[in-house]
Amino acid sequence: MLRVDNLRKRYRTGDEALKGVSFSVPDGEVVGLIGPSGAGKSTLIRCINRLVEPNDGDVFLNELNVTKLGRGDLKRARRRIGMIFQEYALVERLSVMENVLSGRLGYVSFWQSFTRRFPQSDVDKAFSLLERVGLTDHADKRADALSGGQRQRVGIARALEQDPELLLIDEPTASLDPKTSRQIMRLITEICRERNLPAIINIHDVPLAQAFVDRIVGLQEGEVVFDGPPSDLTEDVLTRIYGEEDWTTMHGDQDEPEDTHPHPARNDPTAELV
């Protein structure tokens, strides 16, 4: 279970990104985090695992107060928090299997990681995860030879290789076509239910969130202005979150063929951190 209590973040510019955010996510629940650009969604996700340091408040992962940990304990705690990125954060020159195994870097010695000599149990688990996400036949392919949807599946498998107790997912479908977006959201929600994993998904596509998540938290200017089931996301609520608009025409995108062509390599600065 994740619990966030009165989380606050003010940047050096004076901008207050989070203004006392509080909520909890029980095991197995998938929460969609929505709101306009600048509402604090990405800051919130990054404060939870302290990629961004909050100014005040607490984050509890089960009984562990993540916000009070020193550097060594924080490194160990991050092994328990899987993160899935919008731009995949894969090492392009490495194979699919090597990218998945990078989820074990926090558990093996420096020389094991440097020489890529992982325990057989880690390799067996990686093969099992690749089968679960539908990429068994791609294990030896380089990451830069994959389509966007396939890359995101590798990112999901890598996060699960950590044996996480929580998933933080930052706009997993922003670079994908509508059909692939639905497939990825379905895969994430199914896996969370299978493993009883709590998850937070930062997502801009409101109809897609409504179709797949258990609960929606809406942010506006760093504050929670809605927290409830997708069915309660009325026109009035959407106006409270996003501002005035004609919400009667909002509907999900039609399915399109899955992207099967490799995307050009992206220069994601996080890729070398996996």
TrEMBL record:
Signal peptide: none annotated. This is Phosphonate ABC transporter ATP-binding protein. GO terms for molecular function: ABC-type phosphonate transporter activity; ATP binding; ATP hydrolysis activity. Keywords: ATP-binding, Cell membrane, Membrane, Nucleotide-binding, Translocase, Transport. It comes from the Bacteria. NCBIfam families: ABC_phnC (TIGR02315). Residues 2-246 form the ABC transporter domain. SMART domains: AAA (SM00382). The keyword Transport applies. GO terms for cellular component: membrane. InterPro entries: AAA+_ATPase (IPR003593), ABC_transporter-like_ATP-bd (IPR003439), ABC_transporter-like_CS (IPR017871), ABC_transpr_PhnC (IPR012693), MetN_ABC_transporter-like (IPR050086), P-loop_NTPase (IPR027417). CDD domains: ABC_PhnC_transporter (cd03256). It comes from Sneathiella litorea. Residues 249-274 are annotated as: Disordered.
